[in-house]
Amino acid sequence: MSKQADEYMQQKLHVFSGNIFIYHAFDIGEDADIEKIQHSGVLKTYPQIPPKYFKNYHTPLSVELPHPHTTSRCTSVKIHSFATVSLTYKIPFESTLRKLREDLPALDDKFQEQSMNDIISVFEKIKPYLARPKFFNTHATYLVIQVDTDPNFGPAELKDSYGSDIASTLRFETETLSEYQKDEMLESSIGYFKGDLTVVDSDAAFLYDTDYEDTLSFFEFANIEQLELRFFDRLLDQQLNAIYEGKTRKIPIRSFLPFIGTLSTGPVDELGKLKVDISVITERLENSIKTINEPYFIELYDLLVDKLSIDDWREMIEKKLTIIHDVRSVFQHKIDAVREDMLTVAIIILIIVELIVAVVL
Fold first, then answer.
1. Which residues contact 111 (CB under 8 A, 6 or more apart)?
2. What is the pTM of this model?
């Protein structure tokens, strides 16, 4: 074997160490009463230290998995006020990147199943404190491969020697991807310090960094943000399908009555409440990141927004909210027209009664 070939084999057999972080987020209801959950004692709680680069919107409640549980890999359970639970799993590894690529799909499947068991146990404990509990509405997953930096491999050497393995791993593929796919993924890589490398894809990210704690919060948040946008998109689809298929509840008669009708709630009011709820939560999620004067984190979050299609989800939701606004307007115009007609009829009847009384008397 030539010296060059021997060096190539040594590189492929090089053992890296690090951690695999798997983020699972579940939407399990409409709202969660964080204060009541905390005071109920149904779950052991921990003080929540907000991430450095996040505003304190919807500060989640950090809890421990109910005992007994079957995993020691769950490092974080957070309950958010909008009834979303985020689970974080941390799995240390020490292996070659080729072996990691081969093992990752099975590992991901294992913790998909584990997360289901864990969220069931959490859901059963907090169900009484949820508005419209449902197991579960939507589920989102994101995986981060954190690799400790090695003085033998800078970012350029790492991409040259292991670019194919990194690209295939992030797509959960055990076979080598095409050069086009590999190059497209690696071209968008970023880094903060000289020896760092971050590659972001739609379902997973590769983080070649030893000082990574602040960075992880962005992956967890982006996963939750995508989950909520998908949930709202699904909810709006259900509303629109009901409208298209004529399954909306009929407007009650009292809604058409002047004065009394304004006190009743109907489909118009329900659509309006839905629009407000979605607008408030999505706006707060969008404005939760504070990365002023932090160009690296701005670039990282922009990459996540792009790869997770978060702007596309936002755009779809905005379009559907516009349709719902138009539907509300149609309903409201119908109600206003009927009320006006009823007032007109009432006035005519009063005039006729007055004439009859005047003639009789």
1. 22, 24, 73, 89, 91
2. 0.83
